[in-house]
Task: structure prediction
Amino acid sequence: MPSLKDVRTRINSVKSTRQITRAMKMVAAAKLRRSQEAIISARPYAYRIYSLMLGLAQREGVVHPLLEQREEKKVRLIIIAGDRGLCGSFNANIFKESQKFLRAKEAEGVQVQVDCIGKKAYDFFKRRRQVSAYHEGILNKGSYNKVATIAEENLKAFLNQELDAIYLVYNEFKSAIQQKVIVERLIPVSTQTPSGVVGTVKLSEEERFNNYTFEPSQERMLEEIIPRHFKTQLYRAVLESVASEHGARMAAMENATKNASEMIEDLTLQYNKARQAAITKELMEIVGGVEAMK
Result:
């Protein structure tokens, strides 16, 4: 049985841990508010440009290099995880879905390149396979220009037929306590509305622009809209992941704080019982000594 000093030391240690987890929860909550505002502001534009792109692409006779469907022999998977831990199963869920995707593609004989956004993703996959690229500092700043540079590199690789498809895996932000792992194909852009892709909408005939004349041509518009769509969706995915990470960390730290409080209560009860037993023992010794002196 641990001594009173050991129990008291452990209580103080758990109290210190609780202060840290409580502070981390407050920091995560503050960052979550900002990240949530950012993703809520970005979604309408991302969703609308997605529907515009589909509306143009679904017209008859439309041909564009980024719409070309090729047999998948070499693809790239962009994995967006977090830069830090202490966020529950946030990163683990991403790794699980990524490995599932990699196994499925490689079983089909497809060569898969892995690009990582987030230090945790890079640390996890560099020990298991070759990482073709690690994009550092994207999540901290959340800069559209940095994300657009990554998107341009991937678009160039696809147009040069170095890649046959580009996939993305990330956490979609639902709420502070709920995130959903999304695996979607970004390039080539599908002319059909994919089920389960964030922000897809069912387009009406009017939204497909079937009765409109375009100036400049719709091909020229696609040349401008499709790359912008790709950059916007990649940027939105980064914002989704950042908000999801802060939400997951806030929830994890809240649970840790609650568990620490419960542990303190149990240890305090254990300490009081041990202290009471020691006092009772001392009293019995004193009484026994008095009885012996009679």
Remarks:
- DSSP finds six helices and five strands in the chain.
- The longest helix spans residues 218-293.
- The radius of gyration is 28 Å.
